[in-house]
Amino acid sequence: MSEINEKQMMYRHSMSHVLAKAIKELFGASVKLAIGPAIDNGFYYDFDVDRSITNEDFDAIENKMKEIIERNEDFVRKEISKEEALSMFKSEPYKIELINELPQDETISIYYLGDDFVDLCRGPHVENTKFLRGFAYKINRVSGAYWRGSEKNKMLQRVYVYGFLDKSELKKYINAMEEAMKRDHNKLGRELGIFTTVDSIGQGLPILLPKGARIIQLLQRFVEDEEQKRGWLLTKTPFMAKSDLYKISGHWDHYKDGMFVLGDEAKDKEVFALRPMTCPFQYQAYLNEARSYKDLPLRYNETSTLFRNEASGEMHGLIRVRQFTISEGHLMCTPEQLEDEFKNCLELAIYMLKTLGLYEDASYRFSQWDPNNRDKYIGTDEQWAEAQDIMGKILDKLEIPYTIGIGEAAFYGPKLDIQIRNVWGKEDTLITIQIDQLLAEKFGMEYTDKDGAKKTPYIIHRTSIGCYERTLAYLIEKYAGAFPTWLAPTQVKILNIADAHLEYARSVKEKLESYGLRVELDDRNEKIGKKIRDAQLEKVPYSVIVGDNEAASGSVAVRKRFVGDQGSIALDEFIKNIMQEVTSKVIG
């Protein structure tokens, strides 16, 4: 971390104490403090308050913070014993919980801010609030946050504050956030009629409206066709299975809390669960007959609907949901084939990212196990060392620029995660490629090698485009809803100037549709200017206007998104141009 960043984080941390003191002074001694760290864009603090903190309180809170800064109060660090800390914070239940988790002989540091405010903290902080006078800050929002991230605990109020050393940096960041708001898929996707959610259906269960469903359909067809070209065999497997299957794979022991379980093991003869992944199902296709080395590599792909019981606080729009569809695949191969097959999976993923225009936004993480958390994984130290060594050599040979994520591996093997950030800076995994030999052993998957010996295949778990819903979310944000023509739910909007031109407008629509283009006719009794503006708001790639001249000459007046009026051209010429754009999957 650079010296400037270290200073900025220290100032943000100091400001979080100023915020906590301001809330205490404004709302009284009944306020209970939780935690208040510095973060990438400022800081936050979690409070247990017996009233709601709203936008209307922001000015008062900011003014109180300014008042505290102007008092020139010292930050004073002291070290106390655990017993002293328990006594000092006896009226702060969240601090008491944190203190109780520390070793008995732990020396605990606290920080006073003035004489009347003290917080449990490691520091560091500025020496005096006078150093904070030039610090630029603005309250962003208040949101609910479960204590320690568990929905089993009480919901607290988290006050987020932007904070920067320089006012110009704060202004720059706020402007960037305003732009992010315009692109936020959770907002824009609803405004454009791509998806919606309904309380009576449940959180994390979005409804794809016709536009969103069309885009997903286009993506699925594209992916399945491309996978077929590359030697993948399509399967279709059940959405649920008995617990027996998940017990073999290890998911029952390592992932049960993240599954939707149907039944009660204590009283039901059979207990089922909706599938959170497809691997053990596709393994049954492999096990359906005896295999030899001549059958390998064997590549199975599936457009899989999966179900994961995500915590309510983790769900966000289409990025993290409880039911989703994924471009899943499992590849069984010999050790000699592993490197080439891994490379092929990566090439497929990169081809997808480039075609969608997301390649430049992606980064790579080599997700490894955490040997200090053995309960999270299956397999021996030696097996993990072997798998990670193999993957590391492959990645280095392919010159993939990756970071390492300790503890991010699947419970059965290491993986390459292709990461993308949303407009708010939150990073999620879009595509994964994993190396695994442990589950093949668990399921008794074998092949007969050239020497007649029975051997266990390596398995590559992979997605080619990841979760379709998440990919759609990133595409909405990438293009601000103005999708490339080949992906746009409506590619052409036909706008007739008057009712007299309707017959020709309908013939234009019919001809465009005969080429497979997605077309709408706006035949409302509205002025042409309004029709054009509405098409622009819907972010349709092309509007074609038809009037007397166009009807007489068999032409259309073309308006292209972001470019404007293109003039009148022959209908056949327009079709030729747009079809070239669609078939080439132009993203510019």
Mind sketching the topology for me?
Blueprint: H1 3-27, E1 32-33, E2 38-39, E3 42-48, H2 58-70, E4 75-80, H3 82-88, H4 93-100, E5 108-113, E6 118-120, E7 136-146, E8 155-164, H5 167-183, H6 185-191, E9 195-196, E10 207-208, H7 210-229, E11 233-234, E12 240-242, H8 243-249, H9 251-254, E13 261-262, E14 272-274, H10 279-286, E15 298-307, E16 323-333, H11 338-356, E17 363-368, H12 381-397, E18 402-406, E19 415-421, E20 427-436, H13 438-442, E21 447-448, E22 454-455, E23 458-467, H14 468-479, E24 492-496, H15 502-514, E25 519-522, H16 528-537, E26 542-546, H17 548-553, E27 555-560, E28 564-570, H18 571-583
Parallel strand pairs: 11-15, 17-18, 24-25, 24-26
Antiparallel strand pairs: 1-3, 2-3, 3-8, 4-5, 5-6, 7-8, 9-10, 12-14, 13-14, 15-16, 16-23, 17-19, 19-20, 20-23, 21-22, 26-27, 27-28
Helix pairs in contact: 1-2, 6-14
The oligomerization state is: single chain
User: How many beta strands in the DSSP annotation?
Assistant: 28
Question: Quick one: overall form?
Answer: globular
Total of DSSP H or I helical runs spanning 4+ residues = 18
Going across the biggest sheet, name each strand in turn.
Answer: 11-15-16-23-20-19-17-18
The low-confidence parts are none
How much helix is in the residues? 25-40%
Strand content: 25-35%
CA radius of gyration: 29 Å
Question: Could you walk me through the main structural features you see in this protein, from its secondary elements to its overall organization?
Answer:
The chain has 588 residues and is α+β, with helices and mostly antiparallel strands. The chain is built from 18 helices and 28 strands. It has an eight-stranded mixed beta sheet. A hairpin with a 5-residue loop joins strand 19 and strand 20 (427-436). Helix 1 (3-27) crosses helix 2 and helix 6 crosses helix 14.
